[in-house]
Inverse folding.
């Protein structure tokens, strides 16, 4: 059987609160609000960035325990926290579990879709792409997801996945079969 896999990760967007002093500096720089161009912010560097190649090497070697990895990173000078490390390990760990599930159940994954954007509202790019491809491809028998709540993030997503059954596409979760 051929399957697509889906991993989604929800995250909280940082709350933007500015102090009155910061607001005064912004409005006092000589440019009007019409002159400013707003858009997506550039990603901020993480304390983990210099250690990511080492982490990828350790993950390839089969070390997935975040506590062990944190201890090793601290020995290398890492001053960041456990949460940053866990967030970095989350998607690879989910993909690893899905691949293991597929191997154990003799399922062939034909394509992987990973979303790391918020799913509070419908419209995740990769989820939408996956749904469109599933409706077009008759050779794909189902979707494998790490956990059901990673796939169905809002009511619209639930309805879309439920509609897949009309196309004879089944949904499987890493820890249990959905249908």
């Amino acid at each position: 059987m051929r399957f697509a896999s889906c991993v989604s990760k929800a995250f909280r967007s940082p709350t933007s609160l500015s102090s009155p002093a910061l607001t005064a500096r912004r409005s006092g720089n000589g440019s009007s609000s019409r002159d400013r161009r707003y858009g997506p912010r550039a990603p901020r560097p993480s304390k983990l960035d210099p250690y990511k190649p080492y982490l990828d090497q350790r993950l390839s070697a089969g070390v997935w325990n975040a506590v062990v990895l944190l201890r090793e990173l601290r020995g290398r000078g890492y001053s960041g926290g456990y949460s940053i490390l866990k967030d970095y390990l989350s998607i690879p760990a989910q993909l690893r579990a899905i691949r293991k599930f597929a191997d154990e159940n003799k399922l062939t994954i034909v394509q992987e879709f990973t979303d790391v954007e918020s799913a509070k509202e419908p419209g995740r790019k990769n989820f939408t792409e996956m749904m469109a491809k599933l409706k077009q491809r008759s050779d794909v028998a189902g979707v494998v997801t790490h956990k059901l709540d990673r796939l169905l993030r809002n009511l619209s997503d639930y309805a879309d996945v439920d509609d897949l059954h009309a196309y004879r596409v089944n949904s499987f979760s890493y820890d249990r079969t959905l249908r």
